[in-house]
Amino acid sequence: MEYYTLDQGTCVKQIESRSASRSWMLRGETLAAIIIFALIAALPVFISGYPIYILPQYMLFGMLAMSLSLVWGFAGALSFGQGALFAIGAYTMGLTMKAIGWVVNPAYVGLVMSVVIGGLLSAIVSYFLFSAGVRGSYFVLITLALSIITEQVAVSQSQITGGWNGMFIDRMSLTLGDLWQVSLTGDVGIYYIILPIVAASYFLLRLLTGSKLGKVLLGIRENEERIISLGFNSTLYKTIAFAISGAIACLAGAFYGTHAEFIAPSSGGVLFSTEVVVWVAIGGRASLLGALLGGIVVSLFANYLSAISPRYWQLILGLVFLVVIVYFKGGVAGAFYRFFDQQRKRG
């Protein structure tokens, strides 16, 4: 048996090569994201009707998928509770808009409250779980339980939430005191409110994942014991990641509620949370852009399949999911990254 050793210079070169490769891929993803957001922004100029109504909802699904990508793709903790946070954000928006008068724009209060509640709830739950050493499948089961609890609470508190009938939520308006008001009842107006929010969420998460926080989270995903031995508080870093993820998921839910003008208990249940996991797995859990596009494209695909095959669309979508998991490691985004990285090295 032959043994090969690497001197320090060779190791440094390998590390620099990996860093350069990752940096090149991230620059390419940023450019792709800018192009994609520009194309989405131009769509209302060329098309109208139902696509312009439904696309903002799918963009918010993509935003929800990015929130999962942060904790699953970077921190390595799979959560089935994103749907619950999404529903909590929508219900928070609805209840706030019903409870607050027009002295202050209730939509603004609802959006702020959804971010605060989502961040605090995620931080509290994740801190106690991670402090107790809950990981892996046990963590997945607890997040599943949270989704079940959220759905059951929404059903049981029917006097507040509307129960199985769901809650109707008014479409928000933009106001500046008594001086200025813009109604967003039209599809185009709220389209151009949601698009910048989704884009800002993407670039904020890109900034965070490229910072020290993102690097430590990647280290935790790969080898948490080593990160702890280096003096990092892994519980704190994962809690911060989950707090940010929860705030974004709740914000997406708040905008979804006011756009769709409705939220149902099923949006907080296990089935919807599982759909979020499927979006991220297909798009690529380690890529924010992949998760975003996974939420948008898979939702569009599912909508199309349900129209042409109401009985078998879920089966077809499940088969697509299996094919991607088996043949595309890291999702579709991972396959693209490997292909372009190989082409770059050859060139």
Number of strands: 4
Report the structural category. mainly alpha
Helical coverage, percent range? over 70%
Return the average pLDDT rounded to an integer: 87
What's the alpha carbon Rg, rounded to whole Å? 21 Å
Query: Low-confidence spans: pLDDT under 50, at least 5 residues?
Result: 1-20
- Report the end-to-end length measured between terminal Cα atoms: 35 Å
Number of domains: 1
Instruction: Provide the CATH topology.
Output: ABC transporter involved in vitamin B12 uptake, BtuC
Widest β-sheet, arrangement of strands: 1-4
Largest sheet: 2 strands, antiparallel
**What is the strand content?**
under 5%
Order of helical and strand elements: HHHHHHEEEHHHEHHHH
Q: Which CATH top level class fits?
A: Mainly Alpha
CATH architecture identity: Orthogonal Bundle
Number of helices: 13
Account of the 3D structure:
The chain has one domain (30-346): ABC transporter involved in vitamin B12 uptake, BtuC (Orthogonal Bundle). The chain is built from 13 helices and four strands. The strands form two sheets. A two-stranded antiparallel ribbon has the order 1-4. The chain has a two-stranded antiparallel ribbon with strand order 2-3. With 347 residues, the protein is mainly α. It starts with 7 loop residues before the first helix and ends with a helix. A hairpin with a 3-residue loop joins strand 2 and strand 3 (180-183). 39% of the residues are buried.
Short description:
With 347 residues, the chain is mainly α.
Spell out the blueprint of helices and strands.
Layout: H1 8-46, H2 50-74, H3 82-99, H4 106-131, H5 136-156, H6 158-161, E1 167-168, E2 173-176, E3 180-183, H7 187-209, H8 212-229, H9 234-260, E4 262-263, H10 270-283, H11 288-308, H12 313-327, H13 331-346
Antiparallel strand pairs: 1-4, 2-3
